[in-house]
Design a protein that fits this description.
The complex is a heterodimer. The termini of chain A are far apart. Chain A contains 7 helices and 6 strands; from the N terminus they run αββββαααααβαβ. Chain A is α/β, with parallel strands linked by helices. Chain A has a domain at 65-199. Chain B has helices at 28-44, 60-64, 114-121, 123-138, 145-158, 175-187, 200-207, and strands at residues 3-4, 23-24, 51-56, 77-82, 88-92, 105-107, 164-169, 192-196. In chain B, strand 4 (77-82) and strand 5 (88-92) form a beta hairpin. By secondary structure, chain B is an alpha/beta fold. Classes of the chains: A alpha/beta, B alpha/beta. Chains A and B meet through helix 1, strand 1, strand 2, strand 5 and helix 7 of A and helix 1, strand 3, helix 3, helix 4 and helix 6 of B. Strand 2 (52-53) of chain A pairs antiparallel with strand 3 of chain B.
Chain lengths: 214, 211
């Protein structure tokens, strides 16, 4: 007996629910997106149980890379019309007798972290090549003869009085470097630091108490 | 569904028309595009905001005047020396120049390491806080988050038995060691701790410590 063949049809999958789901996801992501700022160095932060969130504005961050390079970042403030970054650059320019053009100042205002000696700042701002830019990022000098980081911190404190200080250090940085920076900050009357960490939950309950020795 | 079903009609008419298909829109490219966009957004968004751990250091200037340094009893003092490489040493009391140096005990950052020591020392306060938290979780008391925080703060302030921990890091210590140990303080609810500079006798102790 010949088999009864059903007519061959190309299977058609209805993609509509999939499209719906994707749209929902996409809209959600678009609305919640806050873009990750570009960072000059890869920093793996240490882990802690702290659940406190970093303030999202009025924050000055000092990045410490694994090799001890130091980067600095400050935001424009909660009210973006304050333009703290531009003001800061002007002040630093005055301090180091470097004249920045208007374009350079406004460009600096839109950028994020940086880590280079002040004398290279002009080249860095005008350079178009990102590789060349990265080469200039050798960390902010902080030796005792020319402690530029101290100047940045001091001027930033004067520009944005309410700014909090966060330290984002790599887990494997030497404590010596971190200590140096903390001392520098304390010299500038910053006694409260926010150490940026990764959340890692750890629960300790009563039953974890070691048996008493009595 | 993205197809338009059209009724077939007019079969009786003399003209033979080509059979009409329902128009189906191929959604695959759209799905592809959406996938790409979603991946892009997922990778570029910083979903969880960075978490921070707040430490407050004493003001340097009053630190230098010796008169202000509070006198702390020696037996309550727990000195933790960080030597890098997951090595933690601790001793109780203080180093006095003319006496034999206190014995250094080696431990590490594991669950049975320094945490056990801290929990053991801080038993009273830890139990108190944990019981308070338990009561809240089980619903025996109903308090708001801020009240809980304040209550814990008050308990910490009133605590007279717990250890006073002095954290000292030597040259080999890494940043993560400091973060880890401050974290342990938070886990074990230590009421008072401070990060202080390591002294020369302590450096020697670490150097000669059992490996």
């Amino acid at each position: 007996m010949p088999k009864i063949k059903p007519p061959v049809r190309t299977p058609h999958i209805d993609m509509t629910p999939m499209v719906d789901l994707f749209s929902v996801l996409l809209i959600f992501l678009l609305l919640t997106a806050s873009f990750r700022p570009q960072e000059a160095a890869v920093i793996t932060t240490p882990q802690s149980i702290s659940e406190k969130q970093a303030p999202d504005a009025d924050l000055m961050t000092i990045f410490i890379a694994k090799d001890g390079k130091v980067f600095f970042n400050i935001d424009n403030g909660r009210d973006t019309s304050t333009h703290f970054r531009s003001k800061l650059l002007e002040k630093i320019g005055e301090q180091y007798k470097i004249q920045f053009t208007k374009a350079e100042i406004s460009k600096f205002g839109t950028m994020s972290s940086f880590g280079l000696p002040i004398k290279d700042l002009k080249t860095w701002l005008n350079s178009k090549d990102s590789k060349e830019k990265d080469k200039l990022q050798i960390g902010i000098p902080m030796d005792s003869t020319d402690n530029q980081l101290a100047w940045w911190v001091r001027e930033a404190r004067l520009t944005n009085v309410g700014a909090e200080v966060a330290i984002k250090g790599d887990a494997d940085t030497d404590y010596k470097t971190v200590k140096k920076i903390m001392d520098l900050l304390q010299d500038n009357k910053v006694n409260k630091f926010n150490l940026v960490t990764n959340l890692q939950k750890q629960e300790v309950n009563l039953k974890d108490l070691p048996p008493s020795a009595k | 569904m993205a197809e338009i079903i059209q009724e077939e009609k007019g079969k009786k008419g003399g003209k033979r028309r080509p059979k009409k298909h329902g128009t189906r829109i191929d959604m695959t490219p759209m799905v592809d595009l959406m996938c790409l966009l979603i991946t892009f957004f997922m990778l570029t968004t910083a979903f969880s905001k960075a978490k921070v751990m707040v430490i407050t250091m004493p003001d340097k200037e009053d630190h230098n005047t010796d008169k202000n340094t509070p006198q702390i009893s020696a037996f309550r003092t727990l000195n933790i020396l960080l030597a890098g490489d997951n090595k933690v040493y601790y001793y109780i009391g203080m180093i006095k120049p003319k006496e034999a140096p206190p014995a250094l005990v080696k431990t590490d950052f594991s669950k049975d390491g320094i945490r056990k020591v801290l929990l053991d020392k801080n038993r009273d306060l830890f139990t108190k806080i944990a019981e308070y938290r338990d009561k809240r979780v089980t619903g025996k008391i109903v308090v708001s988050d801020t009240t809980l925080e304040n209550e814990i703060k008050r308990m910490k302030r009133d605590d007279k038995k717990g250890p006073i921990v002095l954290i000292k890091a030597d040259e080999k210590a890494k940043y993560k060691d400091i973060v880890n140990i401050i974290d342990e303080m938070a886990i074990c609810n230590i009421a008072s701790y401070a990060i202080v500079d390591i002294s020369q006798p302590e450096k020697d102790l670490v150097k000669n410590a059992p490996k």
